[in-house]
Amino acid sequence: MRADRVFAYGATAGLIGDRILGDPRRGHPVAAFGRAAAAVERSLWGDDRARGLLHTLVCAGGAAAVGALGARAVRSRPAAARIALTAAATWAVVGGTSLGREARAIGGALAAGDIEVARERLPHLCGRDPQALDGQQMARAVVESVAENTSDAVVGALVWGAVAGVPGLLAFRAVNTLDAMVGHKSPRYLRYGWASARLDDLAGWPGARLTAVAAVLAGPDRRGAVRAWRADAAAHPSPNAGPVEASFAGALGVRLGGTLAYGGRVEHRAVLNGGAGRPVEVADIERAVRLSRQVTWLALGACVAARLLVSRTTRTPRTTRRGRRG
């Protein structure tokens, strides 16, 4: 079976597995990678970019190597083995079901008026300071996190899986995890995490644009999504979160961005869809989760179609020899 079909069947099975099973409570492969990356950091850390670059290469390169070894091990096996490996890798690196589950849990607490429970759960979803947020601000934070993580935790992985198979799936998730661990601009990681942050920007670029396009197509307000993306995405400090959050804001008809707090520091970001959007309400969390799921399946279809098209156009044509009649 050709590699394009292996990816199509395997990625679909992996997403279905995530939809049914979600993330395991213990022994998650991404958590194991995080522990390994932390151990590498303890050995390499230094307040300079060269050590940070080495950290990124060791960790992301190691994840890609594991994927390449796994793919090589099943190369001569029946197609079912290759599909199973792709499905397992896809399930391991995507997190759409857990994303929706956490968002809904916070939304349920907010709907019940239990602000303290919502504050306790918010760190499971994003790095905001929950004590600095009221109910409406937490709802906005949840919608923003659902939008951004749809790209980071699902679509970006599918894109690189389509490009490079199992090594691409694992490497993208490794890069994204490294950015979350060391890519922020704290005194400890400003230099050391620079390489991880820049590599995450590069790796996440195609997935973020595909997410934004899918949000335009799947959202209830297509024109609003396009308008917000064009007008406001560039004002976001992240080159990838900007298009995603702006398109979600326009598609849902809400305002995102503005003032937020991370670990004791306050940031004042541009408002996305400020002219046409309304403040986020608790009910918008469920709408964002539904949009995220629709975006996921549209992105899978686009990745599978692109992989099949590239495979078809680059396939060596068979030559036939016709004998002459005598």
UniProtKB/TrEMBL annotation:
Primary location recorded for the protein, binned into one broad class: membrane
Membrane topology value: Multi-pass membrane protein
Record's keyword annotation contains Cell membrane: yes
Pathway listed: Cofactor biosynthesis; adenosylcobalamin biosynthesis
Entry keyword Cell cycle: no
Keyword list, A-Z: Cell membrane, Cobalamin biosynthesis, Membrane, Transmembrane, Transmembrane helix
Coiled coil: none
InterPro entries in the record: Cobalamin_biosynth_CobD/CbiB
One Pfam family here: CobD_Cbib
PANTHER family, sorted: COBALAMIN BIOSYNTHESIS PROTEIN CBIB
Family: Belongs to the CobD/CbiB family.
Name this protein carries in UniProt: Cobalamin biosynthesis protein CobD
Organism: Streptomyces virginiae
